[in-house]
Design a protein that fits this description.
Blueprint: H1 4-9, E1 13-17, H2 23-33, H3 40-48, E2 52-58, E3 61-71, E4 74-82, H4 91-105, E5 110-115, H5 120-128, E6 132-143, E7 146-156
Parallel strand pairs: 4-5
Antiparallel strand pairs: 1-2, 2-3, 3-4, 5-7, 6-7
The structure holds coenzyme A.
The site of coenzyme A (COA) has 18 residues, from strand 4, helix 4 and helix 5.
Length: about 160
């Protein structure tokens, strides 16, 4: 049975739109997670141009984020990151499907994203979520030893969980 102490220890998690004030916390997480992080300017540009930018808020702290562009019937998941302390609780999946649901409501028919072949956790998440590999971009990413390819994934938005 949960005690009052357990209840207090459980933070309130919610997704909310990213604000300009979140960018410093987002950048801190980005740098902690990725060996080749996006710059602060990229995040500010994503907000400025109106991309769909969300944070996972844990009691007022940024614990993750997701960024998606939409246009011409397609959405592109540009960044999806859950802080290490919050992983393997289904939150990345929830963030992903929240973005895909928003894209479909906005009239998008397909979703695309790229992943490093070395990122087996992300590949497992996307394949479990119904994404299919459709191609490879050679030398797409910076890497410790030169460049790394990107696997391109696509998913039709005709069926989403909860339909
Ligand atoms: C990839 C990432 C977003 C997954 O977030 P998460 O909240 O841990 O994912 P979930 O708990 O929703 O996982 C859902 C399913 O995806 C798969 N999965 C997720 N992470 C996995 C891992 N590290 N290894 C194997 N499978 C994994 C599993 O099937 C998992 O279901 P299960 O836990 O019931 O087995 C997170 O690890 C992350 O932020 N990584 C660093 C940033 C990154 O690489 N982003 C993707 C860039 S393309």
């Amino acid at each position: 049975m949960a005690t009052a102490t357990d209840d207090l220890a459980m933070p309130e998690l919610r997704f909310r739109p990213m604000a300009a004030d979140d960018v410093s916390a987002v950048i801190a997480l980005e740098h902690a997670v990725y060996p080749f992080p996006w710059s602060e300017q990229i995040f500010r540009d994503c907000l400025r141009v109106g991309y769909d930018c969300w944070v996972l808020d844990a009691d007022g702290s940024v614990a993750g984020y997701g960024i998606m562009s939409m246009g011409a019937g397609e959405c592109h998941i540009l960044n999806l990151c859950i802080g290490p302390a919050w992983r393997r609780r289904g939150i990345g999946r929830r963030m992903l499907f929240m973005l895909l649901t928003r894209a479909r409501r906005a009239g998008m028919q397909h979703a695309f994203l790229e992943v490093r072949p070395s990122n087996s956790g992300a590949m497992a998440l996307y394949e479990e979520a119904g994404f299919e590999r459709i191609g490879l971009r050679r030398g797409y990413y910076q890497a410790a030893a030169g460049r790394e390819d990107a696997i391109v994934y696509r998913r039709a938005l005709d069926f989403l969980p909860g339909d």
